Amino acid sequence: MTSLISEVAPASPSEALHHFSRRFAFETDCSDVYHSQKTGSVDYVLVDVRSNEAFLQAHVPGAINIPTRAITEERMAAYARDTLFVVYCAGPHCNGVHRAAVRLASLGFFVKEMLGGITGWVDEGLALQRAESAVPVDGFSCEC
Fold first, then answer.
1. Distance (Å, whole) CA 87 – CA 142
2. What ranges in the chain are assigned the alpha helix state H?
């Protein structure tokens, strides 16, 4: 009897190697972000793409808030084109992070997703930060 898993044949080892190796070009995880922060090797801008209200409640330490809808040519003009952005949203149930990544890439920026978002950060046992204040960005919010 064939399981649902093996009903479709797996990729060859060389195809699997290519596929999974390429994912690192698009993704990072909470542990890697945390480790880079702790070692002082932050060579990226960590961006919380949720609404300003959600950011104020809790966010990953070191993150800035640029809601997805606020990622525009005008807003991003402050950053060099070779800036690497690491974006996150509420969690794996939210595609707001993908919308943000598409916007950044379409503007010519390098971008990676932090897998898991806020949910992944908390699942790793890492502390969130509350914002004392934040300035709304043109009234935009990402309703993830």
1. 13
2. 13-23, 30-39, 52-57, 73-76, 96-106, 117-123
Instruction: Count Cα atoms within 13 angstroms, Cβ side, for 51.
Output: 8
Residue 39's SS3 state is helix
CA nearest 124: which of 37, 29, 58? 29
Determine the Cα–Cα distance for residues 82 and 96; give it in Å rounded to an integer. 23
pLDDT tens-digit series, residues 18-55: 999 999 999 999 999 999 999 999 999 999 999 999 99
Please give the DSSP secondary-structure letter assigned to residue 84: E
- The residue with greater pLDDT, 131 or 73, is 73
- Nearest CA-CA partner of 102 in 26, 32, 42: 26
Q: Which of 48, 68, 45 is nearest to 58 (CA)?
A: 48
**What gap in Å lies between CA 20 and CA 132, rounded to an integer?**
40
Q: Are 90 and 119 within 8 A, CB to CB? A: yes
Query: Residue 111 CA to chain centroid, in angstroms?
Result: 8
Reported as a single tens digit per residue, the pLDDT across 15-24 is: 999 999 999 9
